[in-house]
Amino acid sequence: MTPASAKTIHYKNDLRRLTLLIAGALAVFGALLVGVVAYAGWSANRAAVVRERQLVENALDQSVSRVLDQQKAIAWWDDAVINAQARPLDLAWLETNVGVYFFETYGHDEVIIVDAQNRPIYANVGGTLSDAREAYARHATVLDQIVTEARHGAGGHLRRRDRAFVESQSNYASLLGASFGRWAGHIMMVDGEPAVVAALSIVPNLDASLVRGEPHLLLSVVKIDEVFMSDVGGSLLISDLTVSDAPHAGAGMIAEPFLADDNTPLGYLNWTPRRPGQSLLIFVLPLVALGVIGVGLLTGFMMARLKTASGELADREEQSRHQALHDALSGLPNRRHFVDRLQEALDGVVQSRNNGRVVVAYIDVDRFKDINDTMGHQAGDTLIKAVAERLRKALAPEDFLARFGGDEFAVVRRTSSPAAADDLADRLRSAFADSFDLYGQHVRMTASIGLSMAPDHGASPAELMRHADIALYQGKNDGRDRAMMFCAAMAEEVEQRREIEIDLHAALNAGELHLHYQPLISCSTGAVTGVEALLRWRHPTKGDISPGVFVPIAEEAGLMPALGAYVLRRAMQEARQWPQLEVAINLSPVQFRYVDLPELLEGLLAEYGVEPGRIVLEVTEGVLMESTDRNRQILDAVRAMGFRIALDDFGTGYSSLRYLCDFRFDKIKIDRAFVTGIHERKRAMTIIQSVVTLGRGLGMDIVAEGVETEAEASVMRLVGVTELQGFYFSRAAPPAEISQLVAKFAGAREKAGEPAAIVDLRAQFGA
Predict the structure, then answer these.
(1) pLDDT of residue 353
(2) Which of 411, 392, 390 shows the shortest CA–CA distance to 400?
(3) How many C-beta atoms surround the C-beta of residue 508 within 10 A?
């Protein structure tokens, strides 16, 4: 009996008891849940009211401190001390700078000044100059308490409201002494209305000697009216906060007692509080109740379905396990499954002790990206399925095939034969012998294969997989479409590449890379018209390292953006030495993908002051094949800055003629593959003549690269090439030798008495 069957029988026997248990549990749980939700809703609402009441109180406290801060704008001022103590009083000055100022600027309803004996000497009520004694007498009971506290400190019978002001003015009080800077601020009942009443001593802000005896006090009365409460409510996002004599009766509104600082009732604070628990009470609570009832009704149905569900669950578990270990597209095992099976094979070899071996093979479909780019991802998926089926049929029954993702596959074989690796490689390569049918097109595909073997190349899955990957990488570097068995030399090469990568990064940061320049010779004058910047690296221990070695490593390591920027900076810096020459600089496709090229070039022009028309930026067809619209915009922006653009290595790509029409170039550089041995290949000559005719017709200069013989130079001149470049004229030279090289060519031309191009042509063809 299987575990799944035993579980099903157990469910059938205990179904009735389980139903009763679940029903009782649901009843208790349902009642508890309803109570918890109801309490949570009520508690959340009450907590919100308490919190908002505290926020209102805090805002009122801040209002008192704000009134004191407003008073300080005038009261703590040398001029205020002088004019308040003047005899006779300058009422016009006080009215302008105190009464009217506070009324119009801050909305203080009453402003009163009392002298050192607490006698009122000035008052402004409602913005109008008033009798000071009468104004004070109307609120003497309240004002006396405030004045007493300001003179002698808090007595403890009034609630403190000015703590924030006290903290903010501690430094000032310490500076002027304990006798200065006294204040008091409270919310009191004034004329039957709540109001903020504040007193602040009038003291100097600069010259402490101005005060004679006790300082005068500035009193302010600010009524807590509808506007005042609207400002308080606005600061708290409580739009309907009001003060009233009686509680407001409104839907959802609450009324909280409002007491003065001497515990005199001021009325009620009314507002509509947030009710975060209301959704629980209105929506969640009924839903919970309905849910409890629904769960009870569904329990019986669930029990009936339990047996069926258990079987379905087992099937789903098996399906999930399969999906976790297999690739969705090809149906093959995935990397995780492969690693598990490889570990099992290694464990089996160790236990058998019969000289068994385990072979691991990595398969990578060559140029798979081209299929995706040219035919679309759907065609790529179809190809992956076809490759998986081909590999499955080509392998032996004991082989384990997996797909790692993308265009990568892997095979593990346990064997006792040393020749098993060769047999496995032959089987894998045979899968690609015939072309693949993709939507009616017969596509010939190849694969690179890397192999490793245990125990020779490792005893763990990680080692074998890494070594097979190294062998695969070597196969791709050697031209693809081949199977390579791992060897120690490959690991050494990988380690050397890693060392070069680390050293290159350090050399780039230290500025140890240098530029050499190869001249371009004018066909019409024989003079040097420009130079091409070529990167050079002399390693302190390894000597000169070719760009063909370290540039691919830089591309793989993600150093090309920094390396390209370094070359641009160095070339523009050194180009200032030869104001009469063009300087050609190669751009990598990576610089178009990961660098804001126009911004970089604009910064370099500003830094070095080079004329952009002297700089020729050379791009390859690889730049034009990737993101054509974006790259066209970048090239147009660069051209608009004044730089010249050249198409390098022309003729080596797939769509060169189309690029000449779609993109605007100033120069075309014919690849050296067409120039070398041109006098022996008529087809190459025909191609070059066509390119020259087309390029010159579009207004472009034509440069022939790789000129190594006098015959090649002469033929290029005859067909109309504009400039020549190659070892025949000069190798790349360091910057210090360029001026001498330019002078050498200029001297040779003058010595001949006519353009060197004409002299060479006559010597070649007997003219």
Answers:
(1) 65
(2) 411
(3) 17
> Where does 186-333 have alpha helices with state H?
226-235, 278-279, 285-325
Tokens of 227: 């506007």
Task: Output 669 or 236, whichever has higher pLDDT.
Answer: 669
Q: Computed over its alpha carbons, how large is the radius of gyration of the chain?
A: 46
Q: Could you tell me if 191 and 139 are in contact, meaning their C-beta atoms sit under 8 angstroms apart?
A: yes
**Nearest-angstrom CA–CA distance, 216 and 356:** 106
Rounded to two decimals, the pTM is 0.50
Amino acid at 629: D
What is each CA distance from 429 to 334, 391, 424, in whole angstroms? 21, 9, 9
Q: State whether residue 258 is helix, strand or coil.
A: strand
β-strands 110-114, 723-724 pairing:
unpaired
Would you say how long the chain is, in residues?
767
Distances (CA, A) of 722 to 405, 534, 643, 647, 755: 50, 21, 19, 14, 14
- For 686-701, how does the pLDDT look when each residue is reduced to its tens digit (9 = 90+)? 888 888 888 888 889 9
593: its two tokens? 């993908």
pLDDT band of residue 304 (cuts 50, 70, 90) is low
Contact 523, 721 (CB under 8 A): yes
Question: Is the alpha carbon torsion for 488, 490, 495, 500 positive or negative?
Answer: positive
- pLDDT tens figures, 104-136: 999 899 999 999 899 999 999 988 999 999 999
Query: Is residue 701 within 8 Å of 667, Cβ to Cβ?
Result: yes
Single-letter residue type at 735: P
The residues facing 583 across adjacent strands are: 531, 615
To 10 degrees, what angle do helices 335-352 and 285-325 make? 50
Whether the CB-CB separation of 43 and 277 falls below 8 Å is answered with yes
Ranked by mean pLDDT, the top range of 249-258, 269-278, 736-745, 758-767 is 736-745
Contact 678, 712 (CB under 8 A): yes
pLDDT in the model for residue 767:
30
In this structure, the number of other CB atoms found within 10 A of the CB of residue 134 comes to 11
CB atoms within 10 A of CB 324: 10
Q: How far is CA 16 from CA 7, 29, 293, 306, 672, in A?
A: 16, 20, 19, 12, 89
Instruction: Please name the amino acid found at residue 379.
Output: A
Q: What is the pLDDT of residue 551?
A: 87
Q: With beta carbons less than 8 A apart as the criterion, state whether 416 and 356 touch.
A: yes
Average pLDDT, the chain: 83
Q: CA–CA separation, 356 vs 300, rounded Å?
A: 59
The Cα–Cα gap between 664 and 657 comes to: 12
Which of the four pLDDT bands, split at 50, 70 and 90, describes residue 317? confident
Q: Are 108 and 224 in contact (CB under 8 A)?
A: no
In the structure encoding, which two tokens stand for residue 232, read together? 């308080």
| Tens digit of each residue's pLDDT (9 = 90 or more) over 450-478 | 999 888 888 889 989 998 888 888 888 77
* Alpha-carbon gap, residue 281 to 284, rounded angstroms: 6
pLDDT at 401: 93
pLDDT attached to residue 247: 85
- C-beta of residue 535 within 8 angstroms of C-beta of residue 567: yes
Closest CA to 526 of 728, 699, 381: 728
Residue type, 26: L
pLDDT number for residue 306: 61
pLDDT at 330 exceeding the cut of 70: yes
